[in-house]
Design a protein that fits this description.
Keywords: Membrane, Signal, Transmembrane, Transmembrane helix. The chain is α+β, with helices and mostly antiparallel strands. It has helices at about 1-20, 135-140, 405-415, 445-475, 475-495, 500-520, 530-540, 545-560, 565-585; strands at about 25-30, 30-35, 40-45, 50-55, 60-75, 80-90, 95-100, 105, 110, 115-120, 140-145, 160-165, 170-180, 185-190, 200-205, 205-220, 225-230, 230-245, 250-260, 265-270, 285-295, 295-300, 305-315, 330, 335-345, 345-360, 365-370, 370-375, 380-385, 390-395. The chain has 4 domains: about 20-120, Immunoglobulin-like (Sandwich); about 135-270; about 285-415, Immunoglobulin-like (Sandwich); about 475-585.
């Protein structure tokens, strides 16, 4: 009998230990799927926890979630509890991908799930079910990249226009860029899209609406076959269903679709070698070239500006201008480069120039020899050369009006002669008229009396500020406001650090709001339904307006997981949360 009693006690103890054991595990809907299929991941626990942190989901795109569900039931006097965070994922590549660990805090302890490995295979056939929302969205939504020219020359401008085609059978609520092309083999310039405009057109012979999302001008920097990477978008698509509401209106199902423009390949031709000038620097287009000066006559030691400029259409920012050659008698400074170039769908247009500052040292006439500029003309597919005219600079007088050296002598010798005159050092002042500095004693000086009286004058100031501090400490209402502001900043500091990062910001914001309620209302996360929160706040005599604003913040955190949000909207939510928390704390 005693052995039976001991055995029964051990069984009950093991059962109690098993029941009390915390479980936190990750479950996937399938271990093997195609690259075009979706995967559901559930993080399930049998006890309520806080500060849930999902894995990074490397190798996947999160298209849905996190969705939270709670199950709480009593069977034969025993409580059964389950809480689940669900995510819907799309693979981004083939191969074996590991879903890493998620973490959560339960009763002050941190628990982690085990890593889960899934195999991603080639794309599988999609079910061609006309009633399937995902299939309908795929058949009626297309992202297209239109390339202006498939076989350009090296450094010839081409344009890539990205258009999103939408069938009248569906509608698009919003979209965001998932992956942008890098154009590693091109010089690229995006055209500013001031406003998106919806237009009517055709796609494969059927009527569609489309919007131009992006225009980019590319200048290929390599020859051969070059790949233009695709633009990838995540689009929220509203698909009509067969169900209707009580008023007879058709109900819609929202599907998040990932669409890509597809890779485009162009064949870049090298510039011809026949007739290629020796001084060719890579200019491709249609140009005009000239050399100008702001003056032709001046005196020695005066300065003039000589400008070498190219004007026209082509790759203006991608080649070097020819260098200006000057005789030895002119002092030359490094040129200042300036550009006035605009970029449109036809490429770059405008002018570029190098401005040289020249200073003649001696009297005479100095010729600026002609220089030439060569470029490849796309219209005639041949090289062209433009040569500037020779410019004569006439230096009328030398320093102090005396002739110093002739032009021929300055050019042949390459040396600058210095002529000494009687007034060469006239800028030096020989009579300084210096005066001695009178020494002043500190005793009975102004500084002495200030140092003596300053401590006496400071005593009333100390008394005044001490009184102000005492009044501040006795200001109970003001202290409550300051304490509320401090508490709001404490809970929202993490959210403030993530301003600009939508996902992390709203996760931190929601966590801050939940932690605040736990601290002030002594309730657990599992009890935080919106109705219960509003009821508890009303019981604690928090005004209805503040309670509604708090509930609105919680709804904003949930809604922001599925729709894009700007930095200004996040800043507004942060300011609103700070104000609402401070108001609730003051009223409590």
């Amino acid at each position: 009998m005693k052995l039976k009693l001991i055995f029964l006690t051990l069984v009950l103890a093991v059962t109690q230990f098993t029941v009390a054991q915390v479980k936190f595990e990750a479950k996937v809907s399938k271990k093997k799927l195609g690259v075009n299929e979706r995967l559901r991941v559930d993080f399930e626990m049998n006890k309520d926890g806080d500060n849930f942190t999902p894995p990074s989901f490397s190798g996947f795109t999160v298209v849905g979630g996190p969705n939270q569900s709670i199950s709480n039931s009593w069977i034969n006097g025993k409580r059964s509890y389950s809480k689940t965070f669900s995510y819907f994922l799309e693979p981004t590549r083939r191969g074996r991908i590991t879903i890493k660990q998620a973490t959560i805090e339960i009763d002050g302890q941190t628990y982690k799930t085990l890593p889960v490995q899934v195999e991603i295979t080639a794309a599988v056939d999609k079910p061609k079910d006309g009633n399937n929302s995902d299939f309908v969205a795929s058949e009626n939504l297309h992202l297209v990249a239109e390339v202006s020219k498939g076989n350009p020359y090296l450094n010839e401008a081409i344009t890539v226009v990205y258009k999103l085609y939408v069938s009248p059978r569906i509608s698009v609520s919003n979209w965001r860029e998932l992956d942008s092309p890098t154009y590693s083999d091109f010089w690229s310039q995006a055209i500013d899209m001031k406003q998106l405009k919806i237009e009517n057109g055709e796609y494969k012979g059927e009527p569609y609406r489309f919007v131009v999302l992006r225009k980019t001008v590319l200048y290929p920097q390599k020859t051969g076959k070059l790949n233009i990477e695709p633009l990838t978008l995540t689009v929220s698509v509203d698909v009509p269903t067969k169900r209707r509401d009580i008023f007879g209106g058709r109900l819609y199902s929202t599907v998040n679709k990932t669409v890509a423009a597809g890779n485009r390949t162009i064949n870049v031709k090298p510039l011809p070698q026949q007739g290629r000038p020796d001084d060719f620097s890579g200019a491709v287009g249609s140009f005009d070239f000239k050399v100008t000066t702001n003056k032709r006559e001046l005196d020695a030691t005066e300065s003039l500006e000589a400008k070498v400029s190219v004007t026209g259409n082509g790759n203006l920012k991608l080649f070097d201008l020819p260098k200006l050659s000057v005789p030895n008698g002119l002092e030359q400074y490094e040129p200042e480069h300036n550009e006035r170039v605009r970029t449109n769908l036809t490429g770059m247009a405008g002018n570029i120039g190098d401005t040289y500052t020249l200073v003649p040292q001696y009297k005479g006439k100095y010729p600026l020899p002609s220089i030439s500029f060569s470029y490849f003309d796309l219209k005639t597919e041949s090289y062209k050369r433009i040569t500037s005219d020779e410019i004569i600079i006439n230096v009328k007088t030398g320093p102090d009006g005396g002739d110093v050296v002739s032009t021929t002598e300055a050019t042949n010798s390459g040396k600058k002669l210095v002529t000494q005159t009687g007034t060469q050092f006239r800028f030096l002042k020989l009579d300084a008229n210096l005066e001695p500095i009178q020494k002043e004693h500190f005793f009975k000086s102004t500084a002495y009396w200030v140092a003596l009286t300053a401590p006496l004058l400071a005593i009333p100031l100390f008394l005044f500020f001490g009184k102000k501090r005492e009044e501040r400490l006795n200001d109970i209402s003001g202290n409550r406001v300051r304490k509320a502001d401090k508490l709001a900043r404490k809970y929202l500091s993490e959210a403030k650090k993530n301003l600009g990062n939508q996902k992390e910001f709203y996760i931190a914001m929601e966590r801050a709001l939940h932690n605040y309620l736990k601290a002030k209302l002594q309730i657990q996360t599992s009890e935080m339904s919106k109705d219960r929160i509003q009821r508890l706040l009303k019981e604690r005599e928090v005004d209805d307006t503040t309670a509604i604003e708090f509930i609105g913040l919680l709804e904003s955190c949930e809604f922001a997981r599925y729709t894009p949000s700007s930095t200004s909207a996040m800043q507004q939510d942060y300011d609103k949360a700070s104000r609402v928390i401070a108001s609730i704390d003051k009223q409590l």
